[in-house]
Amino acid sequence: MSRYHEIEAAIEQVTGMGRIEVSVLLSAGFTALLAAALVVYTLRLTRSQRRLRLKLEEQLFELKTTELALRESEVFYHSLVESLPQSILRKDLNGRFTFCNSNFSRELGRTPQEVLGQDDYSFFPPELAEKYRLDDARVIEERKPFEAVEEHSTPGGRVIYVHIMKTPLFDREGDAIGIQGIFSDVTERKQAEEQLQAQNLLLREMAESERQAHEALKETQSRLVQSEKLAGLGQMVAGVAHEINNPLSFVSNNVAVLQRDLAELLDVLDLYRQGEGPLAECRPDLVDEIRARRESLDLEYTVGNLPRLLERTRDGLGRIQQIVRDLRVFARLDEGTLNEVDLNEGISSTITIVQGHARKKHVRIDKDLGELPPLTCFGAKLNQVVMNLVMNAIDACPEGGAVTVRTRADEGGVRLDVVDTGCGIDPAIRERIFDPFFTTKPVGVGTGLGLSISYGIVQDHGGTIEVDSTPGQGSRFTVRLPPKVALAPAS
User: Fold this and answer.
1) What is the largest distance, in Å, between two alpha-carbon atoms of the chain?
2) Which of 190, 191, 335, 441 is most buried as measured by Cβ atoms within 10 A of its Cβ?
3) Distance between CA atoms of 390 and 52, rounded to whole angstroms?
4) CA 473 from centre of chain
5) 380-421 per-position pLDDT tens digit
6) Using an 8 Å Cβ cutoff, are 130 and 214 in contact?
7) First vs last Cα of the chain: how many Å apart?
8) What is the spatial distance between Cα 320 and Cα 249, in angstroms, rounded to a whole number?
9) Rounded Cα distance, 80 and 144, in Å
């Protein structure tokens, strides 16, 4: 390329003019060309400066606008931080305060300027300050907020409860630079919660006490009702026994006299038979009539059967007398006092009474009564326990089932087992069978008081009652009694 063309290209690049315009200028002479190029360059430089100035002015306006917004935001943030009821603070990685609002500095009894640059050890007891430092370190290490309600000691020594939340602070690169904390005094709320908890606990205790009182009242009522029934039964049995004993004594005595006189009558009748021959010679017609009557009456059979009839009658009367005695033993009228009794006698009497119910259900009752020491107890009440257990065992058995009543001496006292071959007890209800009014029998059949009353009576005697049952295989109720009851029953 020639020198001319180099100049031409340089002018085009500097001025931005076209090739033709540059050629014209070059043809006019180099001096004029240079002058024109300077003029054009100056004009373009002026336009570029104007654009740059406008751009700078726009940036300056944006900067001022941003600065104004930032100032307004800082004013709003400061106003918000100062108006909040919570105490707000910031710390650096060394635990020194870099910011705090007035609430926090007021809590410390200092100005904000006196707080900045200090750490927790400057204001709090060493153990509390150490805890705060550990909390800060955990927040920074785990990079997640920490929140709790804690006991806090003020610089004045007052103990309060504070709700505190600490969060980590990060720079633009994501590196931790400190923590921010917000906490508020929740002492009144904490005290109100504790008072509410105490009241709730008191209410629960009152409700439980009321429930127990209600259960005790139900049990007492049931035992009173049963006690009244037992007392009424005793009075009734006494009356029935008295009414039966009087005519029974007459009948028994008369049968005894009849047996005695019958033997003499039979002797006299035998003597008459011996005089039948001489009488036939004197009065054959009378002898014929006597023989006809004797044959029509079957006198030989009648005379031979009369002693056996009277013997069976006396046996029946003896059984009636035994039943009356068993009734009197079962419903002892001296139930209000402690007496030395033979438990086996009471059991035998009770079984006699319930035997009819067992026969009706086709259930067999087996007795296995061992030798027992005498018991000082309330006999009628223990008879009631035996009756309740045996009746329940009978009701639990199917037709053809069996109930075994067994007694044994047991560590100075006695042990009573009532075992049945019935349906057993569902484990889900086993814990409730001694509750008052709980029953598995149909409505109108059971009151749900039998086992509850029995449990109370056994407890009053200082004994225990336990149950062992397998569904489908039957149950065993075991009663253990000491040789002597120390106190009278509560009922």
Assistant:
1) 216
2) 335
3) 115
4) 29
5) 788 888 888 998 899 889 999 999 999 998 877 899 999 999
6) no
7) 137
8) 11
9) 24
CB 406 within 8 A of CB 386: no
What's the number of CA atoms in the CB half-sphere (13 Å) around residue 53? 6
Q: Are 462 and 455 in contact (CB under 8 A)?
A: no
The whole-number pLDDT of residue 33 equals: 55
Paired sense of beta strands 87-92 and 97-100, if any: antiparallel
Strand partners, 464: 480
In 421-463, at which residue ranges do the beta strands (DSSP E only) sit?
Answer: none
Best CA proximity match to 148, nearest among 202, 186, 195, 106: 186
Question: CB-based contacts of 183: which residues, under 8 Å, 6+ apart?
Answer: 86, 87, 152, 162, 163, 164, 165
Please give the Cα distance from 384 to 459 (Å, whole number).
Answer: 14
d(CA 10, CA 28): 17
Q: What is the pLDDT of residues 125-150, one digit of tens each?
A: 888 889 889 989 998 899 888 888 87
DSSP-derived secondary structure letter, 156: T
pTM score, two decimals?
0.43
Strand partners, 369: 407
What burial class does residue 319 get, using C-beta atoms within 10 Å of its C-beta: 0-12 exposed, 13-18 middle, 19+ buried? exposed
The encoded tokens of residue 5 equal 């063309």
Distance CA 476, CA 455 (A): 15
Stated as kind and residue range, the H or E segment containing 159 is strand 159-170
pLDDT at 323 over 90: no
Q: What tokens does 229 get?
A: 């029934």
Backbone angles phi, psi at 122, to 5 degrees: -80, -15
CB 310: neighbour CB atoms within 10 A? 16
Rounded-to-integer distance, Cα 441 and Cα 429, Å: 13
Once rounded to an integer, what is the mean pLDDT over residues 247-275? 74
